[in-house]
Amino acid sequence: MIIQQGPSSQEDGRKMLLEYGKEYSLLCKLNDAKLAYFMVWPSLKYYHSFDSVIKNHEDAASINNAILLPVGRIWKDYIDSMKTKEYYGPDGFHPSLKGSQVAAEIIMDNLFN
Prior knowledge:
CATH topology: Rossmann fold
Largest sheet: 3 strands, parallel
Number of strands: 3
Number of helices: 4
Order of helices and strands: EHEHEHH
Shape: globular
Helix content: 40-55%
């Protein structure tokens, strides 16, 4: 089961990732499934909060013994090293086609490798 949550850099978002993740993890155990967190990214307006997004997803996945789909971390590494925002679409929040393709590759690599 893949879950994803929006405002994950803030304390309320962290709490939701941890608490609801625990509930989903229990449901997965009851149904012989595995939980996976889709690590998101902040909008360009809130790019400064990216490290908190990463930390909160990493902590939640670790605490809830879940798979981490580190899309946000890989996006940030690429954006910071290449000095480009090409993974973002025109609205500065949703992904571009390239960003969507990269996200899909990261998800597939982490689920099936």
